[in-house]
Specification:
Elements (H helix, E strand, L loop, with lengths): L4 E3 H8 L3 H9 L6 E3 L2 E5 H17 L3 H27 L1
Antiparallel strand pairs: 1-3, 2-3
Length: 91
Amino acid sequence: MEKTLFRVIDICKTNNIEYTFVHELHSNGLIQIIVQEEQEYLEEEQVYHVERYSTWHYELDLNVQGIEVVSNLIDKIEDLQRELKALKLEK
């Protein structure tokens, strides 16, 4: 199944996000940018992350390092919630 790709420049314009911010996220391993025919794209799931991270950045004034910490903590919480749910189902 082919994944839907969105141009980075379009995401930035639509969401009023600085292009450099998206590249900072990519440089820090928070998102993956796909380059095809000299254009930069994001997969649909990555667009969700960029929008989420931009909210944290612009509204909560978090820098990229802070975004990375919060994102890792949320991932750990979600993993623990899944594990707890699985344990409850085993009973």
